[in-house]
Write a structure and sequence with these properties.
Layout lengths: L2 E7 L3 H15 L5 E7 L3 H10 L4 E2 L3 H5 L4 E4 L6 H8 L8 E4 L5 H10 L5 E7 L25 E6 L5 H13 L3 E4 L2 H28 L3 H4 L5 H6 L2 H4 L2 H10 L1 H23 L3 H24 L25 H6 L7
Parallel strand pairs: 1-2, 1-4, 2-3, 4-5, 5-6, 7-8
Antiparallel strand pairs: 6-7
Helix pairs in contact: 4-5, 7-12
Length: 338
């Protein structure tokens, strides 16, 4: 049996779902034990996390949670992320692995290279939620669940300099959470996340701004039902500073995506203005058919990949810096399983 200390920095639904999954793993007789520490500067999130009782301790300071942790999940609000790296780096112990859950990875990788030492190890970490929660947009810790990542994908974006031992640890941790590890380059990750995270953010806020600036908004705002509130929810769930910093940090990918979006909207506008029923119908049918194909693949988790063996959480970590100590604590020895 191995024992591992894990710090969860930022106690939203994602982090608390990690905690609940690890609790469930231990409760079902998992061979490893986890000590779970947490921190959040947001008072309502901290209170909700304490009420959930998924953590062994909720600390008042981020460094208090992280200083003795073997594995740190960096899930701070984006506007606090750089300061978090700068503040935490002196506190992290040698051999610690930091999993960065930020929406985009390139800036985090830069901060890791700037602030972390050679024996503190960074891996980008993007868990994709289970298809069962795909249309559930709540982000608060009170909505956490132990199956939040079940049978889904966990994207890992190691740096070129990342040690194999740290990567293997992240893989095995992802499998314990119920996910299927998938690797991307950090730059490729950020290019793809533009389409699935940042364009929805832009459309959300642009849609609200168009409505807000309309001369009839005083009356129209009374007609707001779920379609409008779901579309514009990013103004409720994200701080303006976080969105600003995130968009500017990934501006090259975002501007390319906006250019493509503007071309599409221009074509669609032309079809609607001309009353071109055939063009509009073709546009909608093509989108609808592809959407059905995507949603089926998303629920099945079938992306047409080549068959491969699912990662196992055994003692797969090589014996060097992490292998000598951390891998034994996390995965034990093969002899102990006999």
């Amino acid at each position: 049996m191995a024992e591992l200390s894990i710090a969860l920095l930022g106690l939203d639904r994602l982090s608390l779902s990690v905690a609940l999954r690890l609790r469930a793993y231990m409760g079902k007789g998992g061979k490893h034990q986890f000590t779970l520490l947490g921190y959040d500067s947001r008072n309502d999130y901290e209170k909700a996390a304490r009420k959930l009782k998924a953590l062994d301790k909720v600390e008042r300071k981020a460094y208090s949670a992280a200083e003795k942790a073997d594995l740190v999940l960096m899930n701070l609000p984006y506007e606090d992320l750089r300061a978090g790296y700068e503040m935490l780096a002196p506190s992290l112990q040698a051999g610690a692995v930091l999993l960065d859950a930020a929406v985009i990875k390139a800036p985090s990788l830069g901060w890791a290279q700037q602030y972390l030492s050679e024996d503190q190890h960074w891996i980008g970490f993007t868990p994709v939620i289970s298809a069962e929660y795909l249309f559930d947009h709540q982000l608060g810790p009170e909505y956490a669940s132990d199956d939040y990542f079940a049978d889904s994908t966990i994207v890992l974006t190691p740096a070129l300099s990342s040690m194999r031992e740290a990567i293997d640890l992240a893989v095995n941790f992802s499998v314990i959470l119920g996910g299927k590890p998938h690797f991307l380059d950090p730059a490729e990750h950020d290019s793809l996340i533009t389409l699935t995270e940042e364009i929805p953010q832009l459309l959300s806020i642009a849609a609200y701004t168009v409505a807000m600036r309309h001369n009839a908004w005083g009356d129209a705002q009374r007609l707001t039902n779920p379609p409008f509130s779901v579309l514009t929810r990013y103004l409720f769930t994200h701080h303006p500073d976080a969105l600003r910093d995130e968009w500017l940090a990934n501006r090259e990918s975002i501007t390319r995506a906006i250019d493509a979006l503007l071309l599409l909207l221009s074509d669609l506008r032309g079809s609607i203005a001309a009353g071109d029923e055939s063009a509009i119908e073709a546009f909608l049918i093509a989108a609808s058919d592809d959407y059905q194909d995507w949603i089926n693949k998303r629920h099945k988790g079938d992306w047409g990949d080549q068959p491969g063996s699912r990662a196992e959480y055994d003692n797969s970590i090589a014996g060097s810096l992490l292998g000598g100590a951390l891998s034994k604590r996390l995965f034990g020895s093969r002899d102990s399983d006999k």
